[in-house]
Specification:
CATH class of the largest domain: Alpha Beta
Radius of gyration: 22 Å
Number of strands: 13
Shape: globular
Order of helices and strands: EHEEHEHEHHEHHEEHEHEHEHEHEHHH
CATH topology of the largest domain: Rossmann fold
Number of helices: 15
Length: 403
């Protein structure tokens, strides 16, 4: 079977699915991407596409994302034609992320090939991530921009033969007219890799925490307000003076992945350094880590903190739960879908550093509570997000699309 994956950032959400298909040597797996890292997947052919040009410099800002999507879609079409002419590759099934332009024109080239779209997010000006804080006023200009952001996703909703979305919360963001046609299937968590190991060795550059009695962990791809970084730092300033044996490990890039930057040439970490500061002897920033080192951070965690606006649920939250971390997490819709307060984690008021600090301390003070919550957190992942079960659901979806 010829299987084609489309995602601008290889391998994205298709790491496990592409790897599964590639293990069968009867399959030919091709992955078309705009960019990739050096971590190739065994038996997966990666083809990089490049848009013909940059978006028009003076185009209306509302439609700039749509022009970018059109340029990406056009580049993918050229890659598809080249694959067919030079290598005789014609897909039997196409699976792509619809958040950008990769999937936009696929059905115009292969109208008879099933197209399965992964739908991650639909932008709303109300009741979601935008305007979440009480003092945030969404301007009329921003409302119009947000509505126009959905032009490419709406085209993809029409184009795809099968649509799926990873969580109930993300599914609820899409227009009611389409919800019944969008399946809810998570990409899955590798629970055999992300599992508890009390004897794990924490190996971090220039950091020796072998004698640390309490380790608070925080993980985010970018250190930014969308994932509660400023609130977490404020909570630490309240908590650490009361916990002299406590250390903090913060894993993530010093950049903004979602939402605005604080100022030109500034990062949110620099803002923290220049305002409230932090105890540099006990707060350790690691940057992004290799997978095994990242796992060891989760396995050595005493309390893991995950904060997010009402936005996409991070893999890191589910991976921490799978590793049996004691979770202190924001009482926001994406989190409340997986964590129930007092059952498999402790929920906090995202806007209150005082409450975050208090609940961290509540967990630090109670060994039995931490163990119970951590075990329940892992059980949640085993029941609902275990990789083999999620893969089975994805495979059923794919094979039914090809009937």
């Amino acid at each position: 079977m010829n299987i084609l994956f489309l995602h601008p950032n290889f391998p994205g959400q298709f790491l496990q699915l592409a790897s599964y298909f590639a293990r069968n040597r009867n399959n030919h797996v091709v992955f078309i991407s705009k960019q990739t890292n050096q971590n190739r997947l065994r038996n997966v052919d990666v083809m990089i596409y490049q848009p013909a040009r940059e978006p028009t410099s003076d185009i209306h800002p509302y439609v700039r994302p749509l022009e970018e999507a059109a340029l990406d879609g056009q580049a993918v079409v050229r890659a598809l034609i080249a694959l067919q002419k030079k290598h005789g590759f014609r897909p039997d099934i196409i699976i792509g992320h619809t958040g950008w332009g990769s999937t936009l024109y696929v059905k115009d080239i292969y109208p008879d090939v099933p197209l399965i779209g992964y739908f991650e997010w639909y932008y709303l000006a109300y009741g979601s991530d935008t305007g979440y804080w009480p003092d945030e006023i969404v301007s009329d200009d921003n409302k119009l921009r947000i509505r126009t952001l959905n032009a490419a996703p709406l085209l993809n909703l029409e184009a795809c033969d099968v649509r799926y979305c990873p969580t109930q919360w993300q599914h609820s963001q899409f227009p009611a007219a389409y919800r019944n046609s969008i399946k809810i299937i998570h990409e899955g968590i590798d629970t055999e890799f992300f599992q508890p190991e009390p004897a794990a060795v924490l190996n971090l550059p220039n950091v020796d925490l072998s004698d640390a009695k309490e380790i608070i962990t925080y993980v985010s791809r970018g250190l930014e307000p969308y994932r509660g970084f400023p609130q977490f730092m404020d909570a630490l300033r309240l908590l650490l003076p009361r916990r002299p044996d406590c250390h903090v490990i913060i894993v993530g890039d010093d950049r903004s992945c979602y939402g605005p930057r604080p100022a030109p040439d500034k990062t949110w970490k620099q803002i923290e350094e220049n305002t409230g500061g932090y105890d540099t002897s006990r707060v350790h920033f690691t940057g992004l880590l290799p997978r095994q080192d990242y796992l060891s951070v989760l396995q050595k965690s005493t309390v893991h903190v995950y904060l997010t606006r009402p936005f996409v649920l991070s893999w890191s939250a589910l991976e921490a739960m799978s590793s049996a971390c004691c979770m202190v997490a924001s009482a926001t819709p994406p989190v409340e879908e997986v964590i129930t307060d007092g059952e498999n984690g402790l929920l906090v008021n995202f806007r209150s550093p005082e409450h975050i600090a208090s609940r961290i301390e509540e967990a630090l003070d109670d060994d039995a509570l931490r163990q119970r919550l951590g075990e329940a957190a892992r059980e949640t992942i085993l029941e609902r997000y275990q990789l083999k079960n999620c893969l089975r659901q994805q495979l059923n979806m794919i094979h039914l699309a090809m009937k």
